[in-house]
Amino acid sequence: MADADDVRRLALALPHVAEIDSDGFDFRVADKGFVWSYPERRPGTSRLIRTDIAVLYVGDEAEKQALLLGEPEVFFTTPAYDGLPLVMLRLARVDVDRLAELVTDAWHMRAPDSLVADLDVATGSSSPG
Q1: pLDDT tens, 72-84?
Q2: Can you tell me the distance from the alpha carbon of 66 to that of 49, in angstroms, rounded to the nearest whole number?
Q3: Strands (E), the chain
Q4: Three-state DSSP class for 27?
Q5: Which CATH architecture has domain 4-113?
Q6: What Cα–Cα distance (Å) separates residue 107 from each residue in 11, 12, 79?
Q7: Residue 129's pLDDT band (boundaries 50, 70, 90)?
Q8: Is 102 exposed, middle or buried (0-12, 13-18, 19+ CB in 10 A)?
C-alpha cells in the first residue's frame, strides 16, 4: 500500500524535479506537472485536496482508457478530466514498486529529451522508444 510520502520520495528521486508548494503534493519537471494531489471538487463546497489520490500524467487517451478499463479499482477519472491525458490513482490500491513505475513513466512523458537522458545515465537504463 502506497501513500503520499511514497509519492514524494519517488518523485523527488527523479532528476530535475521541483515540488510546488501546495496543500498536498505537486511535482513538476521542466515546469510541467506529472503527479499531484487530487483536487476533489464537491458541489457547494470548496475543493478538497486528497493526498490519498494522485493525479498522474499518462501518454495519451489510449493509455488512459487502458488503465481505466484494465484496473477500475485502482484508476478512475472525472468529467473535469475528459479529453486530458490524466488519470486518478488510488494510492492505497498499489504497492510502492508499481507506484514507482507509474511516477517514473509520468515523469518520462513530461520531461524534455535532454532530461530523460539524465535519468537514463543515473539508472543505467535506456529510454523507451
Answers
A1: 999 999 998 999 9
A2: 26
A3: 17-19, 26-29, 32-40, 48-57, 75-76, 86-90
A4: strand
A5: Alpha-Beta Complex (3.90)
A6: 8, 11, 24
A7: very low
A8: buried
- In tens, the pLDDT along 76-109 reads 999 989 999 999 999 999 999 999 999 999 999 9
Phi and psi torsions of 63, nearest 5°: -65, -40
Contacts of 56 (CB under 8 A, 6+ apart): 34, 35, 86, 87, 88, 89, 102, 103, 106
Q: Looking at residue 125, what is its pLDDT?
A: 53
All structural domains of the chain with their residue ranges: 4-113
Is the pTM above the cut of 0.85? yes
Edge-to-edge, what's the strand order for the sheet holding 17-19?
17-19, 26-29, 32-40, 48-57, 86-90, 75-76
Confidence of residue 118 (pLDDT cuts 50, 70, 90): low
Q: Please choose, from the candidates 56, 110, 64, 68, the residue with its C-alpha nearest in 3D space to the C-alpha of residue 83.
A: 64
